[in-house]
Amino acid sequence: MVKIKLSKRQDEILEIVKQNGPITGKEIADKLSLSRAALRPDLAILTMSGNIDARPRVGYFYNDKFKVKRQAEKVLHHSVNNYKAHPIVVGKSTSVYDAIVQLFLEDVGTLYAVDSDGHLAGVISRKDLLRASLGNQNLSELPVSVIMTRMPNIITIYPEETLLEAAKKMIQNHIDSLPVVREADEQKNTYLLVGRITKTTITKAYLEMMDEKSD
Length: 215
Ligand code: ADP
Prior knowledge:
The protein has about 220 residues and is an alpha+beta fold. Helices cover about 45% and strands about 20% of the residues. It folds into two domains: about 10-65, Orthogonal Bundle (Arc Repressor Mutant, subunit A), CATH 1.10.10; about 80-205, CBS-domain. It has helices at about 10-20, 25-30, 35-50, 65-75, 95-105, 125-135, 145, 165-175, 200-210, and strands spanning about 50-55, 60, 90, 110-115, 120-125, 150, 175-185, 190-200. The relative contact order is 0.13. The structure holds adenosine-5'-diphosphate. Keywords: CBS domain.
């Protein structure tokens, strides 16, 4: 989709089409006291950019879908940093039993494990804990390091990346959340945990958008 800044006249035309559409080019021209020919370039830009649609013998009308898409784009282009939540962290040697308790206490779906340097070491999801609980193991003796998804298999995101990138990573990898990280040591491939982004984060961002007064 082409993203362009509209001129003052194009904004005026858009407003007229919004209020009066479907409306013919001649009617728009009359409202602006301009000739039909003078309007042609502006109408072409508005049509090509997707703001308005034209139907032969009907006229121009406002493209609502385009508006929704534009608003959605606005939300998804916000940076992860503005939306990230606090990560719930456990040590690598925490027992599966304690991790389950932590999950309930903090009311989250995913825990992150860190090593003794505080670097991200693992992801522990609900299913990881359920799987571990299915066997007859002693959950108080079993450390989360045995059952977690480990580095370098963890999908991460940087604070400067966008919610769109976060959403894509979660959908493509079939996961519910992403640890937001800063590089600790590029060579060693180690990361410091600075937050988390979940599918709920994306949903919340959309709800906020719906609450905002639409333009
Ligand atoms: P749930 O277990 O509640 O369905 P997920 O769909 O997020 O939660 O997790 C599914 C699997 O993917 C689990 O084994 C989990 O350890 C792993 N996982 C979750 N988040 C990530 C991530 N950011 N990077 C890599 N693996 C992950």
